[in-house]
Amino acid sequence: MDISTLCIHGSDEPRDCTGSVTVPIYQTATFAHPAVGQSTGYDYSRLQNPTREHLEKIIAQLEHGDDAMAFSSGMAAVATVMELFQVGDHIIASDDLYGGSIRLFRNISEKNGLSFDFVNTSDLSVIEQYLKPQTKAIFIETPTNPMMRVTDIAAVSAVAQKHRLLTIVDNTFLTPYFQNPIQLGADIVIHSGTKYLCGHNDTLAGFAVTAAPELSEKLRFIYKTTGACLSPFDSWLLIRGIKTLPIRMDKQQENAVKLANWLCTQPKIKAVHYAGLPSHPDYAVTLKQTKGFGAMISFEVDKEETARKLLENVKLVLYAESLGGVETLITYPMMQTHADVPKLEREAKGINECLLRLSVGLEFIDNIIDDIKQALA
């Protein structure tokens, strides 16, 4: 079945006995037992809820996974996945990650006895150099946030399989519409469902999708124990958002390609980082493993004054954190998403006072270009 059809119809299981076209919101904390020792299959909403279950089945199908778990946020999903590991375990991670993931790894996971090496996962030889007997996983984000570097998922998965490691992929930027890491060998796929999967900047959510039942069993135990599950109403919002995922992704990508090419012509803009540009260093890898480029662009302006002027003068583009919604958002990574990353480390990656990040929305793209043009003037 085509992914566009799956996004709309999701699971083939009947929704309820009424014939409701939309999935009901089972806004309940608990469920009554029909008799002693019997269950309807639902006991307590922290364990499972029919609305959330429907959403999870959709996500598992879209990502070609064995199972999916819906969390209260993307970071809750990442934190739960980290509970798979033991004191002394070592993880290799992309050196250009969302700042929240870096904050979690350094301030929570390391406190709990894990160790990390942050490396350029676009270079397989570098990954090999950091392998240790205690290495248990490779955690990658592709494209990376905010520098838009691309990692060859199949190649990294092959290295991981050779050394019996888990491959964990944050697929937030491209979604299962454009990229399917499990089909490329990944063991776990993570999403911030807040972003493109929801698509309307109106709720927080996260997902962990597993490739095998053994991983699902382990994660489900942690999931029900720690309890960071998605609420029924938020699950319903995600089900609704996913219905339009394909048309949103196609249009946002179309807008992003036009905007990225226009940005390349502007004298005050010194570099444009977008995986859909043939000049991007990882363009060939992107073509090999994805069905699209997405709608995330980072770019560097000539000086800090230009960056601040742009942020303070845009009218249609919104200066706000987050991404993936129908509205075009602009973010200042050094002060927002990556504020907790040490200054020297951040600047070594190119995340400085001149770097801005755009999440391109669904507006008429000429209006967005005109807004940025007047803000740069």
Q: Give the overall pLDDT as a whole number.
A: 96
CATH topology descriptor of the largest domain: Aspartate Aminotransferase, domain 2
Give helix % range: 25-40%
Sequence of secondary-structure elements: HHEHEHEHEHEHEEHHHEHEHEEHEH
Task: List how many beta strands DSSP finds.
Answer: 12
The name of the CATH architecture of the largest domain is: 3-Layer(aba) Sandwich
Contiguous runs where pLDDT drops below 50 for at least 5 residues: none
Q: Tell me what portion of residues adopts beta-strand conformation.
A: 15-25%
N-to-C span = 49 Å
| Strand ordering within the main sheet | 1-7-6-5-4-2-3
What's the tally of helices? 14
Q: How is the biggest beta sheet arranged? A: 7 strands, mixed
CATH uppermost class of the largest domain = Alpha Beta
Please tell me how large the radius of gyration is: 21 Å
Number of domains: 2
Class per helix and strand makeup:
alpha/beta
CATH-level-4 superfamily name of the largest domain = Type I PLP-dependent aspartate aminotransferase-like (Major domain)
Shape designation = globular
